[in-house]
Amino acid sequence: MRVAIAGAGAVGRSIAGELLENGHEVLLVDKAPTAISVERVPQAEWLLADACEITSLDEAALQRCNVVIAATGDDKVNLVVSLLAKTEYGVPRVVARVNNPKNEWLFNESWGVDVAVSTPRLMSALVEEAVSVGDLVRLLRFSHGDANLVELTLPPESTLAGTRVGDVQWPEDTSLVTIIRGTRVLAPTPDDSLEAGDELLFVAAQAREEQLEDLLSARRAG
Length: 222
Known about the structure:
Strand content: 25-35%
Number of strands: 11
Shape: elongated
Order of helices and strands: EHEEHEHEEHEEEEEH
């Protein structure tokens, strides 16, 4: 898979390094000469250019990319890169970094964004997840379909503890995608049972989040 990353700062380089380790082809684009640190990610391709310029994106051959990641520290730049990647080059998947949570509402399909990642929101969510059992925590927002990646740690008193996944009447427009149990990551099957302390990851419509939280956190009688 070919991935172009706009922004070769610490965030962009970190993403590039991980993608390269997983066998992907990565191009880092940045307009600041000081950001071009080839020795830090030598396996990546590097391009000194302004990712908001069509000529630069032509040079980057964005039409050959499977994914574009707008990872600069400027939300305006990330929005422009996302819009150009989607509308001018038809990139199948566009991921954008949100620096200021107040701008998060802009990062949607109207601006070409498939997935918006707000670092401050993610950090606060991880803090909440660390101290909250039974509370739904929103980790990521997917623009298409108004869906979110959400997490909830199943409390011991939940009525669903010990219940088979296939026996649960999940709310409409929700899907259980992963169960994290201790150090294990499980792809849930209908025969798997839910256990207290399981970290459950769902893709869910925002309108169903409250209903999902009520279902998972419902306490046993008595």
